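TASK: fixed-backbone design
INPUT:
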């Protein structure tokens, strides 16, 4: 158990895990500049603190043994492929529906789906896992709203996309992507 706690502390302090992939859609704006600004570094630091707090919330629902099982499932999910990965995600959702890591998995699974299924899954993620965080500081509810807004905008559903962008503007002013770029700044780029 001590080893597990030490591992989590190391991962939090580094802020990097298998789930910390750059989201290509939110990352395009700052591809040329690989170094975050001082302001972005501060936003990342603050967001990672919020991620730690959210991860600690799992203690309300799950024992230490269950938390360890969740992390082990998450790590196996991150290494799995195809139907194995999907099966692990479904098991996490069924057995540990309140877990922070489950929210991260469900967002990623939603993003990997296509068409109407992707839209439906992103809506479910927003409904069920809004407060979850990747350890990089990216909030699941915020990135799901941004991605859903972008998808809807591309489909010509501007008013529906605007609903999600407005939610970001009003309730997620400090939400960032993995590079520390505010989603509200990314919205401006998409709408121009």
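OUTPUT:
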């Amino acid at each position: 158990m001590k080893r597990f706690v030490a591992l989590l502390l190391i991962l939090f302090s580094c802020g990097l895990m298998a789930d910390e992939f750059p989201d290509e859609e939110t990352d395009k704006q700052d591809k040329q500049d690989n170094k975050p600004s001082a302001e972005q570094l501060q936003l990342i630091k603050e967001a990672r603190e919020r991620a730690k707090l959210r991860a600690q919330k799992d203690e309300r629902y799950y024992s230490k043994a269950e938390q360890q099982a969740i992390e082990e499932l998450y790590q196996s999910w991150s290494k799995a492929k195809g139907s194995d990965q999907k099966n692990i995600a479904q098991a996490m959702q069924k057995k540990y529906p309140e877990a922070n890591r489950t929210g991260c998995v469900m967002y990623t699974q939603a993003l990997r789906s296509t068409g109407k299924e992707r839209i439906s899954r992103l809506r479910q993620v927003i409904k069920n896992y809004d407060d979850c965080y990747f350890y990089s500081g990216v909030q699941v509810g915020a990135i799901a709203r941004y991605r859903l807004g972008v998808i809807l905008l591309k489909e010509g559903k501007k008013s529906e996309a605007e609903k999600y962008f407005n939610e970001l503007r009003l309730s997620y002013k400090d939400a960032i992507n993995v590079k520390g770029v505010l989603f509200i700044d990314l919205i401006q780029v998409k709408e121009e």
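COMMENT: The first helix runs from residue 2 to 14.
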